[in-house]
Amino acid sequence: MKPTQSKSGHKKKDAPAVQANSPAWYNSKLVLSLISAFAVLLTYLIWNNFFRVEQTQAANNLPTKKAVKTAQVAATSINTLPIAIADREELRKKLVSQLEEVDHTLCSYREASKYPLGSRPIDEHPDQIYPNQAITEQHPMRKRDGKTDATIQVSSSQSRVYLAANESVSFSVQAKDANQQSLPIFVTRAFSTGLNFNSDRPSSQLPLAFADNGRDGDAQANDGIASALLHPANTSLAGFHGTIRTEIEYTVNGQTGRLFFDVIYSPELPATWAGKIRDGIENGQLVFYLPIEVRQAGRYIVNARLDDAKGQAFALLNFNDLLPQGRTEIRLSAAGNLLRDKEANFPMSLRDIDGYLLKENVDPDRSLIPRIEAVAHKTKNYSLKGFSDAEPDTEERRRHLKEFSKDVELAKAALIAFDPEQARRAFPQSACSLKRQASTMGSTTK
Fold first, then answer.
1. What gap in Å lies between CA 2 and CA 174, rounded to an integer?
2. What CA–CA distance (Å, rounded) separates 247 from 156?
3. What's the chain's Rg over C-alpha atoms?
4. What mean pLDDT comes out for the span 172-188?
5. Which of 133, 56, 143 lies closest to 412, judged by CA?
6. Average of pLDDT values for 333-350?
7. Which of 57-71, 186-200, 313-327 has the highest average model confidence (pLDDT)?
8. pLDDT in tens, 190-233
9. What domains can you pick out in the chain, each with its CATH number?
10. How high does pLDDT run on average in the chain?
11. Which pLDDT value is given to residue 7?
């Protein structure tokens, strides 16, 4: 033991440690160290051999021989350590937890990728079901000094956020008291201006008239709702590309309030729709062809909603690809397995189609195509038997499923090596796998 220096300058030995250095303490620490060392060894051996597994699971769902051998090497360390039964049970729980975790990763990826990106269930995109519905907001009255008055509730609405060339947008504002009774509202000042974030020079202001007269964007006269219509193509903002802000000042009960609306305007038409839509069955999928005249070549993003025969929103279809200049067609497809899984009713309706030319490294980053509102096309009557129930078989999906399956295989091998009896029992599964299994059995019995 190393001597220490006393205050008097004489060297003395350290006093014996109390309890902390007792033999019992050393034994406990040794066991914990051995357990930790094994955990590190097991993890290293398994993951070091991750990319060298020969095959995925065999027909009997057991791991490959190499995976088992790898795990057995690690398991040998367990059997030679003086680990208590409770510690072994804890280790088993960790191995089971690891298996369930990698099984969940595999299952959730398989579920998320079983339909193509261009054909997704509509319930995954609730904000895209009715894209042309007005955007409404309700809040306490915001006064000029920045304070609010909670006794006056102001409702504002705008018919859309994105405007293609020649499209218009309507704005409305209404005031109510705490009992939701309408209050007279008077718009005293309103103007629209193009926001230019890259310039210090302010844009010109375009006056806008709000009224409650049943005209110019106002739905009904004298209903307590003041409205206005903005049609940029007919104003000094016709050539502006970007965000147009409309600011208004109003009075309610003698108090002045403020609010604003933003829309994104695209003055150029990169492409226009050019004919009737047609549908058919190709490779087990329901396909639509939309004729289009492309003025500017580039990458186009197009979205469309598909409803079933009952008018229920069914799927969101997406096109994302390069288009050459000239007349061509945009192809949208609804996956056969999606139609069969959700038991689609025909004829189906394609509606609310919108799209844009994507522009990279510029702001704004898109030029809008004129939207097609409401139903644009109804399909023929098809039988579900004519559609394929196969899941996508792309190189990317195969690669990911293969790698995630390796994780599951190694986790199973580690569990068998730790507990050989596990090979005779069903393996633990994640909640995702159990749900998928139940769903598969349910569809089989139909």
1. 85
2. 12
3. 34
4. 94
5. 56
6. 98
7. 313-327
8. 999 999 877 666 678 999 999 999 988 888 999 999 999 999 99
9. 20-113+401-445 (no CATH), 147-265 (2.60.40.1930), 271-386 (2.60.40.10)
10. 84
11. 40
Neighbours of 181 (CB within 10 A): 9
What predicted TM-score, i.e. pTM, was given to this entire model?
0.76
Residue 216: per-residue pLDDT: 81
CA distances (Å), 1 to each of 18, 21, 249, in order?
A: 15, 13, 84
Cβ-based neighbours of 267, under 8 Å, separated by 6 or more: 165, 232, 233, 238, 239, 240, 241
- Written as six digits, the tokens of 141 are 């009255």
pLDDT digits (tens, 9 = 90+) for 356-405: 999 999 888 999 999 999 999 999 999 999 999 999 999 999 999 999 99
Six-digit token string for 135: 């955007």
